[in-house]
């Protein structure tokens, strides 16, 4: 140790001369070298002292930090940003958009598209991910029997996809090198490839093949509870004054009982802890005996919001995560929808092009709809992470649902005619109006 | 340093707490909860007796944020400096009408048998009084508009806030901070807008947070409008003028917020 510090000192004594050198780059290099030396010196010192105490240990002193305290539950991982335990929503690109995944104890609101086709698909992905991870699944519905929805889950693709993708990437890279005929202007050569599909670097969640349904054995291997409103409603109801309607009260009670019975509130022993995934379909629709979709001034305006408050309270104190779909375009009073959004943690809205004039617009020909991130969760920190871009679109490929950054399609025609230019300008105008959803006025600038 | 800009902006410091202030926080298209966290840690540092009605988040959330700002809520609660009502905790039981119906539960209004917030006010009254070594008394509410979602009428909320103001600001000469969150359209005649108008009329300092009118931006999270009310001769904001107004932009960081004049964010300059 002494000898090493002697080296350090001697180097230090020489340093004024080095810094006096006229070439600045050399100085910085030398400073780096010095720092490296200092680092290595202190490292070896540390290692030696460790060796003194534990002579058997001859590996490096750098050890991977392991969280042995936390018993890991399958299908979960701690979030990079705030250390919160997160689970996947079943759609990898959606996980990326909402900040890595869905935090345990939070509520995800999905505003349905007009025909409830894509939001239903998201709900199925959410449930399928629960089945694959072995979570306990709860499904509440008022329209379709839950068993029907469960029979229709997409089949997981359990092959190792990332390695395949990497291989393919390498192959294509080689191909482009072999051809070597296309030259790019030198200043663009080193730019990274623009990647429109959103995905995080490490793999989390599974991929699903929407064209096949999940095997029955797989589905039956996990515990599944259902709530189908027509079966649960008693013949006659007792009219007691309550801010929450009968249907929602029954639903909330059955969730509460399930959490208590199965010990999701932390009473279960450490080893058998699991996640409860709750999927609730089309809350607020008339089938839940709610009139917020029919009236501007509904008789029970606070019924759904009170239910969501109770649900939030249950989720915060247990190992649960929940996805709720709401037909927001049917809700007459905007103030109620605002309150519903506030009571959820993450809120996204799907806007499909089906049946609208955007379906035929050349700008949107690659996509099936737009995805708006309305709210990101606020958990254990002052900032809430917002996505880098709010211009997102989704598409349903033959097998897979994915979310991408919205961009203009390349103009591939040889001669750019004036009319197509006008088209693109028009669609660019549309794009700005579609994406600047938050811009409430353009009267003045912000600076 | 925690939120140094906001303290100097408002002329607040841990040494000097104005007496009898009613501070109203509001947000539209943005999230003002960072201000609640700021005031919570400010008052706890200043050695005030704090009563916190946390209606929308769990205690662990506030405690994790406060820890980043350098205040230990668990310790403050054990020492009796902080009285924390965790609204979410026993709300399910009340909503589902389990257990006895009693006015002793602060969240008893969720049962629907009581139409006013009397039980909640009783809780506030019990908590802010008897300060002992801690003074003055402070009441913080996060957030008031969630009560509307729970079926409480605007009149009942205004009654509640009036009673609280009389008790905390006048009798005990303490401060009261309330957050109201409103929706996007301003010409909504009922609910949160009405609540906001009525409370703006009563408050002595209003901080309203708004998202940028031109839309979302990564480097500027929104703008804050600060309005002081006249408090009689000689009592003015730090600028010296009476009833003054300031408009600033802000950005929330991991451990604080920075405020800057419009157009002077680091992303622009």
From TrEMBL, chain A:
<comment type="function">
    <text>Component of the elongator complex which is required for multiple tRNA modifications, including mcm5U (5-methoxycarbonylmethyl uridine), mcm5s2U (5-methoxycarbonylmethyl-2-thiouridine), and ncm5U (5-carbamoylmethyl uridine). The elongator complex catalyzes the formation of carboxymethyluridine in the wobble base at position 34 in tRNAs.</text>
</comment>
<feature type="region of interest" description="Disordered">
    <location>
        <begin position="42"/>
        <end position="61"/>
    </location>
</feature>
<protein>
    <recommendedName>
        <fullName>Elongator complex protein 4</fullName>
    </recommendedName>
</protein>
<dbReference type="GO" id="GO:0008023">
    <property type="term" value="C:transcription elongation factor complex"/>
</dbReference>
<dbReference type="GO" id="GO:0002098">
    <property type="term" value="P:tRNA wobble uridine modification"/>
</dbReference>
<keyword id="KW-0819">tRNA processing</keyword>
<dbReference type="InterPro" id="IPR027417">
    <property type="entry name" value="P-loop_NTPase"/>
</dbReference>
<comment type="similarity">
    <text>Belongs to the ELP4 family.</text>
</comment>
<dbReference type="GO" id="GO:0005737">
    <property type="term" value="C:cytoplasm"/>
</dbReference>
<dbReference type="Pfam" id="PF05625">
    <property type="entry name" value="PAXNEB"/>
</dbReference>
<keyword id="KW-0539">Nucleus</keyword>
<comment type="pathway">
    <text>tRNA modification; 5-methoxycarbonylmethyl-2-thiouridine-tRNA biosynthesis.</text>
</comment>
<keyword id="KW-0963">Cytoplasm</keyword>
<dbReference type="InterPro" id="IPR008728">
    <property type="entry name" value="Elongator_complex_protein_4"/>
</dbReference>
<dbReference type="GO" id="GO:0033588">
    <property type="term" value="C:elongator holoenzyme complex"/>
</dbReference>
UniProtKB/TrEMBL annotation, chain B:
<dbReference type="GO" id="GO:0002098">
    <property type="term" value="P:tRNA wobble uridine modification"/>
</dbReference>
<dbReference type="InterPro" id="IPR027417">
    <property type="entry name" value="P-loop_NTPase"/>
</dbReference>
<protein>
    <recommendedName>
        <fullName>Elongator complex protein 6</fullName>
    </recommendedName>
</protein>
<dbReference type="GO" id="GO:0033588">
    <property type="term" value="C:elongator holoenzyme complex"/>
</dbReference>
<comment type="pathway">
    <text>tRNA modification; 5-methoxycarbonylmethyl-2-thiouridine-tRNA biosynthesis.</text>
</comment>
<keyword id="KW-0963">Cytoplasm</keyword>
<keyword id="KW-0819">tRNA processing</keyword>
<dbReference type="InterPro" id="IPR018627">
    <property type="entry name" value="ELP6"/>
</dbReference>
<dbReference type="Pfam" id="PF09807">
    <property type="entry name" value="ELP6"/>
</dbReference>
<comment type="similarity">
    <text>Belongs to the ELP6 family.</text>
</comment>
<keyword id="KW-0539">Nucleus</keyword>
<dbReference type="GO" id="GO:0005634">
    <property type="term" value="C:nucleus"/>
</dbReference>
<dbReference type="GO" id="GO:0005737">
    <property type="term" value="C:cytoplasm"/>
</dbReference>
